[in-house]
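Input.
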Amino acid sequence: MKIGIPKEIKNNESRVGMTPAGVFELTKNKHTVYIETNAGFGSGFFDQDYKDAGAVILNTPSEVYAAANMIVKVKEPIQAEYNLIKPHHVVFTYFHFASSSELTNAMIKTGAVCIAYETVESEDGSLPLLTPMSEVAGRMAIQQGAKYLEKPIKGRGVLLGGVPGVPPGRVLVLGAGVVGIQAAKMAAGLGAHVTIMDINMKQLRYVNDIMPNHVVTEFSSEYNIRKRITNHDLIVGGVLIKGAKAPKLITRDMLKDMRPGTVIVDVAVDQGGCVETSKPTTHEHPTFIIDDVVHYCVANMPGAVPYTSTLALTNVTLPYVMKLANLGWEKACEKDQTLAKGLNIVNGKIVYKEIEDAFNVVLN
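Output.
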């Protein structure tokens, strides 16, 4: 198969869809890989690395799309890429369709096969292609939250770990999934007091077993959330409903109950956000302030650490890319139900129920 890896052009997105090691495995299996020049530069991988791995370097994205049958990316296509995608393409990337009607309609119009990393689902309900980026984002949420708590950036002026004689900062984590657990682990490591909330008691028991004593669990309800936001310094939104919009756990009226300079890091923003006032931001302009509450809502957080992220992503995507390349998308999805759940749009038709529900359209 002919596989294309274009350069990511979303604001400050430095990851790339495949490492040279991944390209080597594909070319070893007699597939042709086309990669746009400098596509890996931001992640620390250079054109010569890809050439040595057997890739063909092309100068423009239009050449890559024209040469390839399957496109492997990191982030969803943006407007400049819509017209490059044709009916014969299989596009394998993060899409998060439920948060964007524009993207959904654009991909329907292309007639392409859209397979979303974030909905590839194992039998146990885990999301193998979302997990590594959720791990990165969860850990980064505390890094970024700690920074934006600093007073020069309009935060409360709180050091999360505290110092002798001064109590540590308080972190509220909404969601005890991959993002939430990684955020809690990092916050606990800094010495912060952490409260992690979820509606899944089995998951809360697991967190209670593995975390130190200064990480406490609490059942998630509007009453409990309203109570906790009044005295926590950093709030991390790590809620996920597979393929669907995130529920709004913090509403606009709740902001008035938070102390000035409280920081919200809404990791769920790429699925619409779990905070009503969230809107996607970029690494260039990562924050905004509403009612004296600092909102950090970067939709591609792992893009800030592209070397780590690209390696972690290729580790999990490569086996699926190989199946798609070896068998074609139809046979690959027929043989692998985990991969089949990644099918979101096929030849102009939505085939994933949660996206249908998000836009209230009829499944074909």
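The chain has a mean pLDDT of 95.
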